[in-house]
């Protein structure tokens, strides 16, 4: 997928029964690359970087859960990139790794000629974040095409997640494509207008109703995300 100054490549990676999506952003002019939430399959990620003849300069982390950071240390050892995570997430969970640098809400990072805006969107974790490019939004576990992240772990907050969803709805253009960390039916890359219409959590305009629905009990883990 190509948009303006960059290419965005989607990798579906599997660890046991858990399926994740991680992403490779490549600046078209410089061939500098960023990997978002590297997990599960080192060979797939390293192989994609080699196939694209891209130089890994950044690792971008939406949050600190293991299924989104599993391969940070291994990639950092091989490529020595900068590793970026929100200051709130780093401080709250005491996350650390080689090359780690914090970012704050609204901070802009550069990858060659490509600009990446960091949006701190708490709720799923204390400092969860999304990354906004010219035509794409990488959302980790904040929002999915079909739903939003769980709010059951330390530092999570369904009320904060409601605020984050409302912010995303108001801030991100409806033609921007959404790329989450997991999928539960619809493939990544749906435009934001699709979520406005079909993502149930986008329909709430009252925080108490959103929180009650998000925190309802589900026995089936795969359904808890929606």
TrEMBL record:
Catalysed reaction per UniProt?
3',5'-cyclic UMP + H2O = UMP + H(+); 3',5'-cyclic CMP + H2O = CMP + H(+)
- Cofactor(s) the protein requires to work: Zn(2+)
Q: Which Pfam families match?
A: Lactamase_B
Instruction: Give the UniProt keywords, A-Z.
Output: Hydrolase, Metal-binding, Zinc
Domain Metallo-beta-lactamase, residue spans: 19-182
Q: What does this protein do?
A: Counteracts the endogenous Pycsar antiviral defense system. Phosphodiesterase that enables metal-dependent hydrolysis of host cyclic nucleotide Pycsar defense signals such as cCMP and cUMP.
Name of protein: MBL fold metallo-hydrolase
